[in-house]
Each structure stands twice: as C-alpha cells, then as structure tokens.
Design brief:
174 residues; alpha+beta; Alpha-Beta Plaits; two-stranded antiparallel ribbon; 28% helix
Length: 174
C-alpha cells in the first residue's frame, strides 16, 4: 500500500511493545496490522529497546515503537481498542494474572482524535504515557509537537524531561 506522507496528518497514536519471542519481528508485524486499517496518513517511529519498568523480576528488555495514523473510516476509540485487543490475542497475548507480565505484543492507544474519556475499559489520552520514557521517546520522534492533553507540554519536552528525571528507564534506538 502506498501511503502519502504529509498529505494527511495522523490524529491517532498507538504505542507498541514486545518482550517475548522475536520482538523486532512482532513490532514489524504490528505495524503491518495497523497499516491494514488502510490509514490515509501514517508515521512510525524507530524501534527502541528499553529496560522493563514495573514488570515482574526477570522480565526481559522491551522493544517499543509508536505509530501515527489518520483513518478515513468512521471508527470509534472503543472499536479501535477492540481491534487492537483482538490482534493481541491472535499473536498469543493472554490476560496475565500478574500485571505487566512479559508479552508477545502490547498495543495501547495513546491519543485518539483529541478525545478525552475516562471509562473502565479505556482512558484517553493514555493516563501513564507521560510517565514512561519508553512511550515518549518514540512519540517525540514522530510527533514532537503533539500535546497529549490541552495545556500539557509537547511530546519532545516531556521526553527530554524524562531523560533527566527517569534515567533508570534505559532507552536505545535501533
């Protein structure tokens, strides 16, 4: 599929993470899945390796990335969430008994068309994104001026702050 950069600016951002199996391949397959939604606009970050944060002892490093999409179709945030969860299950993800357990693929909606919501199933923008360097570094790479919430600093500023304030969140761009 030929995507025209710059013609349509992404208005949906999804974080991708993997720390089981061939992580780099899982991220690439997830990018392909998101492209199958036929976005008119597309951007993708580099793949980054990060140390696990808030995970059970012995969890391996994560591969992380962020994708930006502009979708023509009428799709609600909840419908997108259900599609992402279905894809995660297809790739072998199960609901773990222990939070933040290792996973083949994890897809989180960070930002959806400037929508704000706080439901048990979905909170937008993602409530912990600005605390996680492994989210903000790739987001700042593709959308440096994006403000996840009104009045908030842009992604590039948040990422720079996290570099200083959270050095334990080791990051390396591949």
């Amino acid at each position: 599929m030929e995507l025209k950069k710059g013609l349509y600016r992404p208005d949906i951002y999804v974080a991708l993470g993997s720390n089981l199996g061939d992580c780099r391949s899982e991220i690439r397959l997830a990018f392909d899945f998101l492209k199958s939604l036929e976005p008119r606009g597309w951007s993708e970050s580099s793949i980054w390796i990060s140390s696990p944060v808030g995970c059970p002892p012995g969890s391996g490093d994560f591969h992380n990335a962020v994708a930006g999409l502009y979708l023509d179709m009428e799709l609600s945030a909840m419908e997108l969430l259900l599609r992402l969860q279905d894809y995660e299950r297809q790739r072998g993800r199960i609901s773990p008994a222990v939070p933040n357990s290792p996973r083949t693929i994890d897809l989180d909606i960070l930002y959806f068309r400037n929508e704000c919501r706080n439901d048990p199933e979905l909170t937008l923008p993602h409530p912990r994104a600005v605390l996680r360097r492994f989210v903000m570094e790739p987001l700042a790479e593709i959308a440096p001026d994006l403000k996840l919430e009104a009045g908030m600093a842009p992604a590039r500023i948040v990422a720079a702050r996290l570099r200083k304030e959270a050095p334990e969140q080791r990051m390396e761009r591949l």
